[in-house]
Amino acid sequence: MKTLQIFLSAGLIFLTFSCPSLLGAEKLKALIVDGQNNHSWATTTPVLKWILEESGRFAVDVSTTPPGAPKRMLPGQKAEFEKTSAALWAKWRPNFSDYDVIVANYAGDRWPDEVRVAFERYVRNGGGLVIFHAADNAFPDWPEFNEMIGVGGWGGRNEKSGPMIRWRDGKIVRDESPGPGGTHGPQHEYVVEIRDAEHPITKGLPKRWLHAIDELYSKLRGPAKNLTVLATAFADPAKRGTGEHEPMLMTIAYGKGRVFHDALGHAPASMVDVGFQVTLARGTEWAATGKVTLPAPKPEEMSADKVVKREPPPKP
Ligand code: ZN
């Protein structure tokens, strides 16, 4: 009996180390942070969670910050809100270090200093970070955050924030010309073009795919240190675009940390194409581990001619 027990536990240990997928032990822990955004974080977070979990690679938690102030408040309500808000923020202390990767779906009030310090330490010491769409609008006055995102938009960003990053004549150009950071024309479908096909995130993927209806973020500006552009999209002047190939998928090295910056994904309708989903999941895996094991889809699932959709299941 004892021999059998030893045999079984040895077998279990063997399985755990050799074939972790059998026990589900290989799942990476991801934390989506949301709670305030000029975008509909409450509808995009479930889609992000679905994309990551559906890949089979992630277990996903969500940490939602206290709400921002309502737009209109009477003087008496303001004092009450501030009191309640301070108490809620005092309790919001996500344990970043419990996770392999943080997915930022947040653009709103300043985080408490203690959280900012923990977040900086987490990324600098090798944590993974994914910046999803309007998360690059956040915290224009937080220098360390701006280094993590590489480039961002709005919030008073301008030439003092750093250059715009452009793809011209087959290479990256830092464009220092003055002007506000962050713009986009009306939403439309557009082709995303991979510019670095040797990076683990993009290796083996089709070079171009037609992305679902979305804003085409343009004129993002920032320190752009240690930044690699993986994919761009052409901001067509016919769609009130800049006429530039604007960076859409980027990586940034911050200390020992890895950042994947995905400028795509304005709304759930912008998150239905396989190309978006695959690059998000692979980028998140890379941010978490520095490697990508998630397979490339079939070439016809990332077509440059039509938007190939994979819709999340309807809400229960
Ligand atoms: Zn948007």
What's the gist of this structure?
It is built from 6 helices and 11 strands. The chain is an alpha/beta fold and 316 residues long.
Could you characterize the architecture of this molecule?
- The chain is an alpha/beta fold.
- The protein has a single domain (2-69, 77-301), classed as 3-Layer(aba) Sandwich (Rossmann fold), CATH 3.40.50.880.
- The chain has helices at 2-18, 41-54, 75-91, 113-124, 143-149, 274-289; strands at 28-34, 58-64, 101-104, 128-132, 164-168, 171-175, 188-194, 208-214, 227-234, 245-254, 257-262.
- Zinc ion binds at residues 39, 133-134, 215, 266.
Q: In percent, how much strand structure appears in the residues?
A: 15-25%
Task: Supply the number of structural domains.
Answer: 1
The number of helical segments is 6
| Share of helix, binned | 25-40%
Q: Can you say what the CATH homologous superfamily is?
A: Class I glutamine amidotransferase (GATase) domain
Could you describe the largest sheet, including whether it forms a barrel? 9 strands, mixed
CATH class: Alpha Beta
CATH topology: Rossmann fold
What ligands can be seen in this structure? Answer: zinc ion
Order of helices and strands: HEHEHEHEHEEEEEEEH
Which regions have little confidence, pLDDT < 50, spanning 5+ residues?
A: 11-24
Our Rg estimate from Cα atoms comes to 21 Å
In whole angstroms, how far apart are the ends?
Answer: 48 Å
Strands of the biggest beta sheet: in what spatial order?
Answer: 2-1-3-4-11-10-9-7-8
Secondary structural class? alpha/beta
Overall pLDDT level: 93
The CATH architecture would be 3-Layer(aba) Sandwich
Q: What is the number of E strands?
A: 11
Question: Given the C-alpha coordinates, what overall shape results?
Answer: globular
